[in-house]
Amino acid sequence: MPKQRVVFAIDIGGTKIRGAVVSESGDILVRKDIPSQGEKGEPAAMKRLAALLHKMCADLPDTEPVGIGMAIAGTVDPETGLFSNPPNLPSWHGTVPSLDLGELLGLPSRVHNDASLAALGEYVFGIGQGTKSLVMITLGTGVGGGIVQDGHLYGGYRGYAGEIGHLIVDSSGPQCACGGRGHLEMMASGTACARIAKERLVAGEASLVTKLVRGDLEKVRAETLVKAEGLGDLLAGEVLRDAADYVGVAVATLRSILDPELIVIGGGVSRNLHLFFPRLVASAKAHAMDIDKESCPVVTTVLGDDAGLLGAAALAWEKLGE
Ligand SMILES: [Zn+2]
After folding, report:
1. How confident is the model over 39-71, as pLDDT tens digits?
2. Which among 117, 137, 90, 150 is positioned nearest to 20, based on CA atoms?
3. Does ipTM surpass 0.90 in this model?
4. What domains appear along the chain, each with residue ranges and CATH number?
5. Do 18 and 49 form a contact (C-beta atoms < 8 A)?
6. Residues 6+ apart with CB under 8 A from 27
7. Residue 185 C-alpha to ligand 1 middle, in angstroms?
8. What separation in Å is there between the alpha carbon of 165 and the centre of ligand 1?
9. Residue 230: enclosing H or E segment and its boundaries?
């Protein structure tokens, strides 16, 4: 009997590397995480990862790995695989993890950033199945995004398209780490929500948040605000609703420019999004053109934390189909 063709899907983050063996229909046959141990360098990590994947394959004797897809948190050139200025893996700057892993395993490999691949994952295996175009907004400690058009990731002229975290939602807003100003990431990411709440607490506003972190404002996180809001805290509720409003502004902008069939909201913060989803949709409609006010194609992720991993698998299969 011929062996089942599978790909290795890899999701590289600052603290852990997730590996999985994935079928052509997107079934995860086996999965395992290892710590990134970024300080020990990229070659050591790729060797550990290759050993892990060998072992995973040995446990699935009826499968034949035919390619590798890699999602990576940070700036990566999808053509060359070159990884640049990774904020969470600084010693990996200038390395090419996808090529190194491909050489160790003797398999073709492709790589893209994790937010773009989350979009591809939803498009191929998730809520976007059957659509022609999709935009994904990933709300976590930062804000990422990806654009899929006709089955392919849209990269733009230089490959930087889809930086939805750097859409301007408040032109007088604070400076962003990227050098711009008033970007979505500075107004609606988990980090931004915590920062805005902290600023208001330092200015003397009363809130349950102070009690929840026992007075240590450095410990304020988006999760703290969600908890406080659940207890009826006004300040926490305002900060989170403002964030939902800003995401709605971004949604309206994306619709005007791209007119996607679907806009998918994912990422860690989206776990609590049901609390603010109606607010987000109302904001998106309020800021939209008249023709976009009646309906709003915004949905939440169905793949959750696996969107990037399954996007990496989709990328590997796409390569094999060329
Ligand atoms: Zn920015």
Report:
1. 999 999 999 999 999 999 888 989 999 999 999
2. 117
3. yes
4. 4-120+306-320 (3.30.420.40), 130-302 (3.30.420.40)
5. no
6. none
7. 7
8. 6
9. helix 222-230
